[in-house]
Amino acid sequence: MLGLLKLCFASKEASKIHIRTAKIEDAPHIAKVHVDSWRTTYAGIVPDAFLYENLTYESRTKSWEKQLQADETTILVAENKQGELIGFASGGRERSGKYKHVDGELYAIYLLQTYQGQKIGFALVEAMAQSLLKQEFSAMLVWVLEQNSAKYFYEKLGGKRVDSDRLIISGKSLLEIAYVWDNLKQLAHINRL
């Protein structure tokens, strides 16, 4: 796996973070970032019933513990200078098998709201691309809700829109968009100075 990874960043804030492979004891912290990020990112998009009744720290902690124990997914965490977990990314093999030229997938990437816009997301994507390259993946896909402003982040990174699909969350139909990067080697060096 990846171990501790330090990268050079264009942002002073991003240079104060460490990205490393997640450990089992990170599960509750990943769950907190996951739940808190969903509640800030998807407010007004995803029904409140899902965000506040179905999405709990306890349920997400159990889910992340299972994923960390299964060792089938690469899970990276970002920590600030004080060692607080502020973000994470997970990825691995593309799950649908629908895209012939795409073998890798960024399953999730989330940052606490106060750390967004500081190039930390770029660092997490770069680290995930590096990890997937080491696992011999060559391309990567990500799904994002159409109403999520993160789609502009993926476009800025050079992601090409290749597909869309409908997703139902608590009875609400939402459009998801798939972005693809055909060359993980380029994506693995986006933050280098």
| CATH overall fold name of one domain | Aminopeptidase
Tally of helical runs: 6
CATH second-level architecture of one domain: 3-Layer(aba) Sandwich
Radius of gyration: 16 Å
Spell out the helices and strands N to C. EHHHEEEHEHEEH
Strand order of the largest sheet: 1-2-3-4-5-7-6
Mean pLDDT figure: 90
Poorly predicted regions are 1-12
Outline of this structure?
The chain is α+β, with helices and mostly antiparallel strands and 193 residues long. It has a domain at 14-138: 3-Layer(aba) Sandwich (Aminopeptidase).
Walk me through what this model shows:
34% of the residues are buried. This protein has a domain at 14-138: Aminopeptidase (3-Layer(aba) Sandwich). The radius of gyration is 16 Å and the shape is globular. 32% of the residues lie in helices and 27% in strands. The protein has helices spanning 27-41, 48-54, 57-70, 120-134, 150-156, 184-187; strands at residues 18-21, 74-79, 85-93, 104-111, 140-145, 160-169, 172-181. It has a seven-stranded mixed β-sheet with strand order 1-2-3-4-5-7-6. By secondary structure, it is of the alpha+beta class.
